[in-house]
C-alpha cells in the first residue's frame, strides 16, 4: 500500500471518528479545558464528570502517548481534579478509561460528590449516572471549573 493510500485511509477514519464528531458538537458551556494536546468536556450531565481526550488520533491507547501527551497528562489530571474538588463539592475523583472503540486516548474523571449516597460509591457509580445527573448544576460546576483552570497559577 502506498503512502498516499495509507494517508487516505487515515483521513477516512478521521471522518468517521466518534471523538472528533463529539468534539465538533460540544457546546461551549461543556468545554472546561482545551489546549494543543487535550480537550476536556463535561459528560453525562453529572456535576464534575469530565471526559478528557487527546486531540490526535491514535489506536495505541496509553502506551502510544506522544512525549507531549505523556508529559502533560499527570499535571492536567491533577489540575482538573483539584478544580472539581474546589468547585463541585467533590470528595473523590475516579479515573476510568477503556479505549476499546475510539481512535483517541481518552478517559473520564468521575467526581463523587460529598452528597453521593454510599450505595452509589465505588466502581458502580457509572451505573447511577442518570440518578446523579443534574444538567443545570453540571453546567454551573463546569463554568466554575473552567474559571478556576483559567486563573494564573
Question: What this model shows, in words?
Answer:
- There is one protein chain.
- The chain is of the alpha+beta class and 153 residues long.
- The protein has 5 helices and 5 strands; from the N terminus they run ααβββαββαα.
- A 5-stranded antiparallel β-sheet has the order 1-2-3-5-4.
- A hairpin with a 3-residue loop joins strand 1 and strand 2 (38-42).
- The model has no long low-confidence stretch (mean pLDDT 86).
Q: What structural class is derived from the secondary structure elements?
A: alpha+beta
Question: How do the helices and strands follow one another from N- to C-terminus?
Answer: HHEEEHEEHH
- Uncertain residue segments: none
- Give the strand line-up of the largest sheet: 1-2-3-5-4
Q: Name the overall outline.
A: globular
Give the percentage of residues in beta strands. Answer: 15-25%
- Supply Rg: 16 Å
Strand tally: 5
* Residue share in helix: 40-55%
Q: Quick check: average pLDDT?
A: 86
Question: Biggest β-sheet, characterized?
Answer: 5 strands, antiparallel
- If helices are DSSP runs of H or I spanning 4 or more residues, what is the number of helices? 5
Distance between the termini: 49 Å
Amino acid at each position: 500500500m502506498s503512502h498516499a493510500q495509507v494517508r487516505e485511509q487515515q483521513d477516512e477514519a478521521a471522518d468517521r471518528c466518534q471523538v472528533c464528531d463529539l468534539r465538533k458538537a460540544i457546546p461551549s458551556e461543556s468545554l472546561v479545558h482545551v489546549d494543543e494536546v487535550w480537550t476536556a468536556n463535561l459528560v453525562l450531565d453529572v456535576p464534575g464528570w469530565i471526559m478528557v481526550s487527546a486531540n490526535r488520533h491514535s489506536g495505541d491507547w496509553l502506551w502510544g502517548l506522544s512525549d507531549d501527551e505523556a508529559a502533560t497528562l499527570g499535571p492536567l489530571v491533577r489540575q482538573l481534579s483539584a478544580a472539581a474538588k474546589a468547585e463541585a463539592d467533590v470528595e473523590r475523583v475516579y479515573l476510568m478509561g477503556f479505549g476499546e472503540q475510539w481512535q483517541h486516548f481518552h478517559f473520564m474523571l468521575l467526581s463523587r460528590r460529598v452528597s453521593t449516597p454510599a450505595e452509589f460509591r465505588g466502581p458502580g457509580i457509572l451505573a447511577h449516572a442518570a440518578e446523579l445527573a443534574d444538567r443545570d448544576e453540571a453546567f454551573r460546576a463546569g463554568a466554575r471549573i473552567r474559571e478556576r483552570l483559567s486563573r494564573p497559577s
